[in-house]
Amino acid sequence: MSASDTAQPGPAVPPKGGVVAYLTLDGALRAAEFYKAAFGAEIVASIPPDEQGRTMHVHLIVNGSSVMLCDAFPEYGHPLQAPQSFSLLLPVEEIAVWWDRAVAAGAEVVTPYQTMFWGDVYGQLRDPFGVIWAMNQPGQPAGS
């Protein structure tokens, strides 16, 4: 079932989180399906694709926060640009579970997760659309 089959326009779903990432990708509906498989995303709303298969809006909930997606529409001044100079951080409790699911879905390991100097377990993955997803599992507080 595609993202356009699972969610349709309707009443607006309020975004969750203090800052919401809005990603322009080549294949926003495909990305939504990937994020479902890789990160357990829930598609809460989407605009059906145009005749070229592009959508202007997909609203996901990933790990309790909203992530918005759209395709590029260069003819309206919204061209596709490669993701750069940012990453999306997923704070998680069980990094191995999240990590293994994302890698099995097709995410590429950029930085293997490991205990870092600040005490947390941290790693980075790149999704098939070029977006870097960092995962961070809190370490044990000193004295635990």
TrEMBL record:
It holds the Pfam family Glyoxalase. GO terms for molecular function: dioxygenase activity. Keywords: Dioxygenase, Oxidoreductase. It comes from the Bacteria. PROSITE patterns: VOC (PS51819). InterPro entries: Glyas_Bleomycin-R_OHBP_Dase, Glyas_Fos-R_dOase_dom, VOC_core. Residues 15-138 form the VOC domain. Transmembrane segments: none annotated. This is Glyoxalase/bleomycin resistance/extradiol dioxygenase family protein.
